[in-house]
Design a protein that fits this description.
Oligomer: single chain
Mean pLDDT: 94
Number of strands: 11
Largest sheet: 11 strands, antiparallel
Number of helices: 0
Radius of gyration: 18 Å
Order of helices and strands: EEEEEEEEEEE
Distance between the termini: 20 Å
Length: 174
Amino acid sequence: VNGITRKGKIIGVLTNYWWIAGAHLTVTTQDFSLNDVKVTGTKVFTSKGYNETTNSYSYTVKVDRAKINSDNETFVWSAERTISYYTKGTITALDDYFTVSGTTSGTNRAGDSFTTTIKKELNKPVISRWFVSGIIEHKVGNRPVATLDYGNGTIDSKATVTIGTNTFEITLHR
């Protein structure tokens, strides 16, 4: 499909109905590759259920030492994120929104350690293509820190990138 050759299996095992707090969806690969690039790892989604106080449904995602191997280069990472969907208690989905928080760390193909941290929770209204607020910080080895700032909540395709002391506006594409 789309010029990409997929081989192997992606296997998902769900322990309970997804809306039940504590349900797990464990996703693993078995001899899986994309264009002969081997992908291994386990991703576990855990339902936190529905919170009536905040009108939200949340789940966590944990990736433990996933790997992508290509041409004797390996990219390894682990991640922990929480994704929440807020309904605001209304009957329309137009005012609903998602939030994302968490961290990722690992080693890139050049052997440099990296961390990516959501410093300010990402916020994406259902009616928007893009996140409208939140800040992500990315550190690689001894390089200058890179920060991506999605703004103050305005629905638009703009964000600000800061690398070291240089800041510039970018247009997000989908």
